[in-house]
Amino acid sequence: MRKIYITFIVLFLSISSFAQQGAIEVEGIVTDANEEPLIGVNIVVKDIPGMGTVTDIDGKYKIRMEPYHRLVFSYVGFDNVEVLIKEDRRVDVQMKESASTSLDEIVVTGTGAQKKLTVTGAITNVEVDQLKVNPTSSLVNSLAGNVAGVYAMQTSGQPGKNISEFWIRGISTFGANKAAYVLVDGFPRDINDVNVEDVESFSVLKDASATAIYGDKGANGVVLITTKRGKAGKVDIQAKLETSYNSRTITPSVIDGNEYVKMVNEAKITRNQEPIYSDEEFEIISRNLDPDLYPNVNWNSVLLKAGASTHRASVNVNGGSSTARYYVSMSYINEKGMYKTDDQLEKDYDTNADYRVLNYRLNTDVNITKTSVLKVGVAGRLSKQNNAAMYDEAQIWHAILGTSPVYIPVMYSNGYVTASGLGERTNPWVQATQSGYSEHWVNNVQTNATWEQDLGFLTQGLNFTANIGYDLSNANWINRVKWPKQWRAERMRDANGQLIFQHIAGPAEMYQESTASGIKKEFAEVWLNYGRGFNEKHNVGTTLKWHIDSNERTDNVGSDIKEGIPNRHESFAGRLTYNYALRYFIDFNFGYTGSENFAKDHKWGFFPAFSLAWNVAEEKLVKEKLPWINMFKIRYSDGRVGNDDIGTRIPYLYTLAFNGSKGYNWGDFYFNKYYQSLYYSQIASTGITWEKAIKHDLGVDLALFSDKLLITADYFDESREGIYYTRNFLPGMVGLESNPKANVGKVNSNGFDGNFTFRQKIGEVNFTMRGNWTYSKNEIIDIDEENSIYPYQMQKGRRVDQVTGLVALGLFKDYDDIRNSPLQEFGTYQPGDIKYADVNGDGVINDGDITSIGATRKPNLIYGIGSSIQWRGLDLNVHFQGSGKSSFLINGPNVYAFNEGIWGNVFSDIAHSKRWVSADISGDETTEDTNAEYPRLSYGGNPNNYRASTFWLRDGRYLRLKTLEVGYTLPKTWLTETHLNSVRLFFIGTNLFTWAPFKMWDPELGSSTGEEYPISKILTLGVTINI
Amino acid sequence: MLKHTKHIIFFILALFAIVSCADYLDTDKYFKDRMSVEKAFKQREYAENWLAHAYSFLQNENADVCNKNHSWHNFADDIYTGDWDELYKKFKNGEYDEGSLQASWSSCYKGIRQASEFINNIDINEEMTQEEITDYKGQARFVRAYFYWLLLRKYGPIPIIKNDDGMIDYTLPYSEIALPRNHYDDCVEYITSELVQAAKELLLDREALNIARPTRGAALSARAKVLLFAASPLANGNNDDYAALLVDDEGNRLLSEKYDEMKWAKAAAAAKDVMELGKYQLYVSHYRDFGNNDFPQTIAPPYHPDYSGRDWPNGWKNIDPFASYRALFNGELSASTNPELIFSRVQNGTGGESGGLQWMVVHMLPRAANGWNTIGVTQKQCDAYYMDDGSDVSGKDKEIGRGNGSDRSDGYVTAADVQAGRYKPLLEGTSLQYANREPRFYASVAYNGALWPLSAATQADHRNYRAWYYRGSPDGYSNNFYWLRTGIGCKKYVHPYDTYENNSLSQVRYKTEPAIRYAEILLIYAEALNELNESHQVPSWDGSKTHTISRDISEIKKGILPIRLRAGLPDYPSDVYANKDGFRKKLKRERQVELMAEGHRYYDLRRWKDAPVEEVLPVFGCNTLMTENQRDLFHTPVAVSSLPTTFSDKMWFWPISKSELKRNSRLTQNPGWQTYD
After folding, report:
1. E-only strand ranges, A321-419
2. Lower Cβ count inside 10 Å, N or C end of chain B?
3. Quick check: A8 pLDDT over 50?
4. Which positions in chain B touch A678 (Cβ < 8 Å)?
């Protein structure tokens, strides 16, 4: 907190130094090379804090200043102009368009910003504007299909949980954490804590040369985010207001009561059982004559609104002088859940899945001396997530989809609440609205301070930076539970025709439960940089870095000392670069990193990498003969990095525990000499260390036709060794009571990624097209597993998390077909049931025939393609995103029709697809179709049909119109009367269309049952105002 | 500027200096006060805790005498259980599989590791005297050897971890962890040498507070048991097809092809080592002049010129054979007051649904005592008991083709008989087939119409209950689980007070598990001596002397006669001792009777290689479908179809679990069982 005060004081001082004396007034007009006036040119007085103005609609300006100072004119896309003002009262300036090209593009790397031209590793610089178009509270949702090399998957649409998982260049381990290492302003922080409006740069470091300096943290790739900082000049205020309407990309659709009754009867009859519903009962249900005993409920419409809203507002202010600058921002998001709520209760509390977030940030930079800058940053995030108290998303959706339309009414006509099953089978309306509410708060405060010292006075090109940071995070969860009185009516009425009720459960009056967690992080870092060119040919650079961080749980740490001690890392890292005339490059990077999580001899590791690049475009011959090639850089890198995020604290230490029920009593009966037992509750895993990754990358960067076409493409391969894993298959003979961990597995992966941008200006139309793709594939070389006599049953040789099951050959045609086929050992089966392949040829079908049958649930291919067009004030941006090479099994009560008897409904898509129907029922031989999409119905469990097999395997690929954005920037002339600089109105459509072979629910969810909060389709209207 | 420069450079240097000094990643300081192995072994209390954990694996599935559920080895051709029908049938039919009752494999090895760790570390203890440390190390060593023994008995040859520290290094790759099975004789050599070492370390006596800890006698007795098994036909000179298939991963046989008589001599010498400790004696209860239903007046054995007039141990004049035998099991004697008890888990593993002896009694008690009424005795076992004069019962084993031509008695005890004091302790209406049997019969077998005192029952009419097994009687045939399939019950371990009133164990007395008792040692001695042709010189356990071991009849009698006399039975006629085969038969029968329901018979039938015959004979019992009116038919034995019998080669040893085979690539399965697929 003290840090915040100090920051405010510094800020206040910098703003209050506006005092002026003995000033003159200077005015003039600023034009471009064609003598057209330039509107909004930034003008500051050099080295005087807070002095500045901008040109007006006619390119005119007026400023009061002291004489004998320099005026600096700056404008985006133009070179700066500096003019020394002596006593002149009028200064007209002509500015030249800057000749900056792709060669000057700046990329943020692990060792600081550098020109893209000189980058030799695989680094993707993300265009921040592309991240801003996603109107959810998390910026990771816009990574999929926008960033080459990044896979992302959104597995829930629930506000606050609608955060994509993402991986860089696929998954290369099955042991330790697969997630990328994310650094915000230099320190490891949660990417979701960052407000997208505050992002200045976002880069993804993919290969070993880029991540080696992170040593044992670099193996899964690194994301670097820097936040915006103040710029000298006039106060600049940006405000953005958005309001969105969220509906669903695909709402899982289930059949209604009429269809349900017909199908359930078919399921019984086709297995020679009595149908459940008589014709009379069917009549009652279809005409809804007795909603108490014969309900016909559409649970989707009982529980779900058509859509929900999101409101978002953000404002940021930046400005300052050349001696002190500030950036202040604040944003607020309110995402509403899409459940219907009880109107009565709504006034009192919120059971809906609502999510509110407040982000703030204050970045201040102060030049303390001519050569040193102090930067202080404070940021925070407060969030609150509401929910129904007793049931989470998965349970509520299990009930919404699984409660059949004819099972129970929402409520009896006399107002009694209907009882259904227990737990996740509770009446869905009770689950979502009547069981109380929970609130989950997270409060984060992040602070950091940086001192940058230019040591140019010692030797040119030398500088020094020190950083410290301190973050606190607290999460509190409180659950206020209640439980209504619930009833069930008997199937018969009494003599007076009244319902006979049985009291099943409840009531429970409201009570509460709560938990909390907290994390404290500390960081420090020191840098020494040196970079200089000699003789205009030889360019050298070195960087040395020392870094420590500590991460400590502060609440609910349990009784084991291991869990409460700070998790610490320390690293020394460095980089040496040399290039010859920007033509030949060589880089050497290293990290010497340590983690306190490992035993003494395994704490420290050395991770070297080197990279080479050749910029062919700089060769004389190319320059002369192929001048349209602006850049043609071939890169190669090779190095090793590690992954120490193994999730287990201090695995090299054993834990001894007492067990009161496993002791021994040595006394005779009626004597007590009982001793509880003392034993290894966790055996030591000595020698545990980080996973090692050996990475290679071959890439090319192309800039052609005066930067109209930019292409980057990379081939990569990786070998991940010593994968951290539990040794689950030690023989009982070893006599352990807990499984040790070890670095045992190995996975190889390879793939390619790349992106292109094409820009063309035709008259006043700016046209841009961009695309990117990522493909990778892995193979398990070694994993902890038992012997199996069938090699295909071993994970070795498969992909990580590859889908396994039986191979279905279609449906049995008739009893002859059954007789002539191998025996299937799962349960009885008839014609129309699923026939499986005898994979091992042993004449029977059983678990020994399970093999790998598909890809992985997580995609192996992800791509995006988009285009933007700008004409005068109008802009249009279209972005398609797709994913492929994934497959998943479907199952659950609504897929396996009537598998669980009375529980479950049937997805419409399944009900309306072709299924095998006995000719006895349909009266038509052709319905006994062995190629039908679904097998003969059955009721109450069918272990033959309803098991993992290719029959239930679905392709997870999809392509969606992820973003459609239309914006209109009001003409400057309209704003002359106001104090506004610019105003842009926009519309964004997100996930407007999805094309996928799988239609029952959104395939991106990766769900096997569809019981997930659907992904949102979002319509957003917004305005951005710049003052 | 220069001043600033100095400051800045100084600051930078200072920063790097701080960095290089502080050991930022040192975590040792946090763990200094945490529980450590060192602390665990330095302090007495923690060391006891550690050892308790090693002992704890002796319970449940590793108990020697136990009810169904954890293990089924207490049920061979002698007793059976009627509930848990499906499981029992699977067990008897050999339909159990590689996954059945496998807990003992891993729990024994867990105990082995825990004990090894103890042996390796206990020397650092600062709170025990050197003598205590030695004794405690001996305890851990005994326990470890005992786990190996339990494994050997159940699974046959097993992998022995012979590293110096007795532990497998779990950080090694699976391929290096894999161990093959050792030869049966290797296992025996390892176990017995460990037991000798334990015997040297262990105390000779334990007071009541430590009665469940092994003594020197326990170690030497366990050694005698192991050596007896090693000398028996299954492991000694086994040339059958099965033995040829039982091999390790390199194809080496694991059972000795070559018969070695010395093995018997070693077993006999080992038993003699125990006898010469002078520590143990058979328990006898004194002659009782008067009595009641709970503790009846002594029924003296028929007059015998040699024994009736002499006091124990030369005769039975001053003892009550029935009470002597009964008190060993039913809880009358505590572990510390039982001079015959050598090793027992005592209080441990007695609880647990269906596990311990109290629960076994609940399964024996009649319905009137709220018992399950399901554990009973087969006709074969019933017939094995002698008449009170040492002769065979009339009609013995007639139905299974082993009769001597005689028929079963067909009369019943009348009121006049009771009045006249005939057929004691039979009451009116009891079949005369059960009359005048040896005392152990009345202490063990709950024949039709036997009296159950149930004296702890709160209501008088619940006591002194006569259980009848006729159809229509409360304890007779029914369509639930609770009836005796042979119409012959079991009441060994049942105390006259015991009742399961209100489904509470509180009125079932604690029973001490007779894991090893002196009677068994005596029988081992007699059995092993009988097998000898030659005289052998065998060093005693501690090498202090040499036993001369040969088939000396007077020595054999030292083993068998006390057992007979305590039971009120006279010695065998001298021709029984004349040849090995004759005596062997008698000895097997003596073990069958004396050690019934103590977890021996299942393994005895296997080591003797008698199982293919004995386990296959149909089980006979009373005709339980008959009502009281048809009592003659009831007492005419019929084959009991609901008690299956079978034996196939795979049933010699228990299968090894598939998962263990998958994990230990050098392990080989017992013949007849699947490896894995």
Report:
1. 324-335, 355-367, 372-388, 417-418
2. N
3. no
4. 40, 46, 49-50, 52-53
